[in-house]
């Protein structure tokens, strides 16, 4: 898998798609949902308390909720694109630096996909939440915010590995 993901076509295509989706979400979609700078969409992810989430969603109004439901597919696409980009970049650097035999490096590639999966899960729970916020399960909403927190934590961990790999010396054949 690392060899397939390290392909430059995969790397640059996923980079382009990730940047495109990031711009669409941050410049257009999220502000279109909350009528402001879009930050309340992230606040919803990390609300932890259902009552706080209901307040956030109520601040959007019917138009904002309808926009969230209409445009949520962009966040699913963003999750796919950033998962593939981070996995591809990590794979490329792991092979370039000769670290492919080390489990800690191979495992972090899966972390990128786990973050994308958690993003998918978070988005899906939010859709269910929006269908009936008042009757939505308090524990499930809390779990939703834990999932979002893990997703947000996975991205900096991937960045740290990228920085470590960029700083690492290339391993010579004799060192392997």
Walk me through this protein's architecture.
This protein has 176 residues and is mainly alpha-helical. It has one domain. The protein contains 6 helices and no strands. Helix 3 packs across helix 4 (50-96), helix 4 packs antiparallel against helix 5 (103-131) and helix 4 packs parallel to helix 6. Residues 172-176 have low confidence and may be disordered.
Concise synopsis of the structure shown:
The protein is an all-alpha fold and 176 residues long. It has helices at 2-5, 8-34, 39-45, 50-96, 103-131, 138-167.
Note the topology:
Elements: H1 2-5, H2 8-34, H3 39-45, H4 50-96, H5 103-131, H6 138-167
Helix pairs in contact: 2-4, 3-4, 4-5, 4-6, 5-6
Structure keywords:
single chain; 176 residues; mainly alpha; 6 helices; 0% strand; disordered C terminus
Cα gyration radius (Å):
19 Å
Strand fraction: under 5%
Overall morphology = elongated
Mean residue pLDDT:
91
Low-confidence stretches: 172-176
Number of domains: 1
How many strands, which pairing sense, and closed or not: the largest β-sheet?
none
Number of strands: 0
Write down the secondary-structure element order: HHHHHH
- Please count the helical segments: 6
From the helix content, strand content and strand pairing, which structural class follows? Answer: mainly alpha
Task: Give the proportion of residues in helices.
Answer: over 70%
Query: What gap, in angstroms, lies between the N and C termini?
Result: 21 Å
